[in-house]
Amino acid sequence: MKPSINVLGDELQSCSSKPLTGWYRDGCCNTDNNDHGLHTVCCILTDKFLQFAKSKGNDLITPAPQYNFPGLKAGDRWCVCARTWLEAAEKGVACPVNLEATHEESLQIIPIELLEIHAE
Hints:
There is one protein chain. The chain is of the alpha+beta class. It contains 3 helices and 2 strands. It has a two-stranded antiparallel sheet with strand order 1-2. The radius of gyration is 13 Å and the shape is globular.
């Protein structure tokens, strides 16, 4: 696992335990070299973002019990793929982010200034 540092250079905070999120399902947006989607952006989901993700083939709404996935709704917090969030931002449908819970690896793809604009 990569060091648990957020985009502000501080200790990575928890994103969500209900629903339990994260590449490791530890509540944090931690990552490692196997996380090719870079699930590192702690988002406060909106209906527009959820519909956007679904239109891109990432249905976060429909429960998938076989994967212990409850399905998500607006207001839930979730570790989202950095590229998906960036694409949503470029389309004007980015959801708010929690900077304290967004992993520094997100900065490989998303400029800090853009994240700050969307900070909760």
